[in-house]
Design a protein that fits this description.
The protein has a single domain, classed as NADP-dependent oxidoreductase domain (TIM Barrel, Alpha-Beta Barrel). Strands 3-4-5-6-7-8-9-10 form an 8-stranded parallel sheet. The protein has a two-stranded antiparallel ribbon with strand order 1-2. It contains 10 helices and 10 strands. The chain is an alpha/beta fold and 286 residues long. The model has no long low-confidence stretch (mean pLDDT 97). Helix 4 links the parallel strand 6 and strand 7. One of its GO terms (molecular function) is oxidoreductase activity, acting on the CH-OH group of donors, NAD or NADP as acceptor.
Length: 286
């Protein structure tokens, strides 16, 4: 393998690896092992959520790796994310739900990033959640806070709020060459908010795309590796997921080549809007 993910600096000065392992739909029974194996091959960034019900497994995998070589394996080198689920919106609910998340991952001491999983509630509840998250950062149990699946109006809601003291560091949304979300991306970057791309592999639905396969052949890479590299070259933090140990290495082995600007343009379909996941809360109005 030719290299490891670079670190990006968030708007609060915290650094995050540009490539992480998504843990959506990873069973709790498999999570500890896949996280541990991922750490062994170079992953340092893991994306969980309250909805995923695998926070505890992720922490177990991290703890196993930390204990294996305490001199060289440091907690500060691992970045762990979780997300507040929709029914937990609101100040009190959020405080309680994060307390429960901290209990699930107590062996790792703190949470690097908490995201609001989606905007699907209402303005008062969302801002109550943000107030709670700001307090948790000030308490030191959470290092950074951000949002997920937020459209521009949802982000503006926070930025215009007179009680905002901490700006979102990240907006995590589904992004791939057929779902480029230029409006959201441009707004985030203009406001110093990093964009995380989930489901960058289109949930496998476009891996056999002829144009993608042609580009993959040109670079001697797999289509999945080309899609991951596309996200990185577009400036996104990218979160491929797999529950297969053999794919962990190939998904992170994307740092020995660069896709040409011409090929990036050829494989980018700004006029398409293909949502491969079962939801698109960025369009939620409420």
């Amino acid at each position: 393998m030719s290299g490891l993910p670079q670190l990006k600096t968030l708007n609060n000065g915290v650094q995050i690896p540009e490539l992480g392992l998504g843990l959506w739909q990873t069973p709790e029974s498999k999570t500890a092992n896949i996280v541990y194996e991922a750490l062994k091959v170079g992953y340092r960034h893991f994306d969980s959520a309250q909805w995923y019900a695998n926070e505890k497994g992720a922490a177990k995998g991290i703890i196993r790796w930390l204990k294996e070589d305490p001199k060289n394996h440091k907690r500060k080198d691992v970045f762990f994310t979780t997300k507040v689920k929709d029914p937990s919106h609101g100040y009190e609910n959020t405080k309680q739900s994060i307390k429960e998340s901290l209990e699930q991952v107590k062996g790792i001491g703190y949470i690097d990033l908490v995201l609001v999983h989606s905007p699907q509630s209402n303005k008062n509840l969302r801002l109550g959640t943000w107030k709670a998250l700001q307090e948790l950062v000030n308490e030191g149990v959470v290092k950074s806070i951000g949002v997920s699946n937020y459209g521009v109006p949802h982000i503006q809601e926070i930025l215009k709020w007179d009680e905002m003291t901490i700006k979102p560091v990240i907006n995590q949304v589904e992004i791939n060459p057929w779902l480029t979300r230029k409006e959201i991306v441009n707004f985030c970057h203009k406001n110093g908010i990093e964009v995380e791309a989930y489901s960058p592999l289109t949930r496998g639905k476009r891996l056999n795309d002829p144009a993608l396969m042609k580009i993959a052949k040109k670079y001697g890479k797999q289509p999945a590796q080309i899609l991951i590299k596309w996200s990185i070259q577009k400036g996104f933090i990218v979160l491929p997921k797999t529950t297969h140990e053999e794919r962990l290495l190939s998904n992170i082995d994307v740092f020995d080549f660069t896709i040409s600007d011409e090929d990036i343009t050829q494989m980018t379909y700004d006029d398409e809007y293909q949502v491969f996941c079962s939801w698109d809360p960025t369009t939620y109005r409420g």
